Amino acid sequence: MSWNKKTNVTILVVMVLFWSLTASAVEQKRILFYEKNSAKGYTIEDKYSTFKDALEGRGYVVESLDIELSRDVLQTRDPDVLVIAALSGSLSSTELAAIFEFVMQKNRGLFILGGSLSKKGITPANQITIPFGMTLDSAILEDERNPVVEGSNPTTKKENFVVNTFNPENDPTMGLAIQGVREIAFFGGPGIDLPKSDQNSNVKTVAICGRNTYSPNSQIFQKGSRPPIAAAGVVGEGLVFVLSDEDMLANDYLDTSKYKYDNLRFGTNIVDWLRTTKIASNVSADIDQLIIAIGSCIILKDRLNETLQETQDRLDKTIKEKTALAQDYEEQTMELNELKGQADPILKISYMYWAIAVVAIAVIILSVVVAGKKAKKAPSDEKDEVFGYEFEEGFGEEEDASNLDADEELTDFTDVGKEVKGKE
User: Fold this and answer.
1) For residue 317, what are the contacts with CB-CB under 8 A and spacing of at least 6?
2) Is residue 369 assigned to a domain?
3) Would you say the pTM of this structure is higher than 0.70?
4) b/e per residue, 175-185, with b = 16+ CB within 10 A?
5) Which residues contact residue 283 at a Cβ distance below 8 angstroms, ignoring those fewer than 6 apart?
6) Where are the beta strands (DSSP E) in 277-324?
7) How many domains are there within the chain?
8) Interatomic CA distance for residues 279 and 259, integer angstroms
9) In which domain, by residue range, is 411 found?
10) 149: part of which helix (H) or strand (E)?
């Protein structure tokens, strides 16, 4: 396959060709993560578990491989897409040969996720990417103008920044990979050195940084260079996608309570895009763009069918819940009517009215009791009144006592006077 623009394929023609195809056979969609030489923790059971769950949500069977790659292993596992994430060691010649054959001759997809953890100046992933026309730089990118927002606060790490420019060449075959993706958060990684745009290359730029993104330790990516961080290519009969930051799809950075970016959507889109050449391999076409476009349409159709099925399931569930609620309402109504219809067999009075009467009588009795208690308490609280005036208890007693003492003193004084006069 070659990625030259021999003709302009319009969306209308692609759709007509697509709808003329017979429905594709139902088959399992398999993703294989190679983890033998991955950095510690970068596995589908650890840092990539959220990514794994999202892929399984799209119907993929996701498996891991912790032994050496070989033709027999790939043939036995038979994945649609091989993912090599956070590669930290060298691959053997046997492994490299198996990978190249898997992509170039078997119509399969290869996803290189990170792998820039260089040792002694060597970037491990370049063993695979350089033969495909893409080279990972060894220096980490920085950007001070477009920081990642964590929660509500911009990060202070220069290595964490936002990327929002996709498919700068407006290549129609990249539509599936960037569908629904507006912004992605980058968490430390190098730029990808690609062939010049004027060269007849099968490599395409998928995502590029802003003009303020650069690497102070790189001779390639200085300010204004707009480094690519995601690139794709057609290699032989298959597809290759390179994303330079292994942390972009790690659990910590997919936490939606902190980060409001489209990293997870981007990752699942990439895997879908890498399947396009396999599912369209039975279509007779010589134009690469047409093959990829048809594959993209098939995947979109599968997505629509999945969405339709999910919607139908939710509708069926809602109908069942509605029916159950209607039955409950009918049963409750019948019970209420039965209660209303129940009556005293002697007086033929409804039990409901009896209940109301009992409550009313209880209220009346309670009111009478409360009023009686207030009536008994009122006389003891009244104060003495004389000629319309109120006097406190004990008022006037002190005055009577003082008058009595004065009379006694006056009597004593009179007696003394008499005695004096008698002596004279």
Assistant:
1) none
2) no
3) no
4) bbbbbebebbb
5) 21, 291, 294
6) none
7) 2
8) 34
9) 384-423
10) strand 149-150
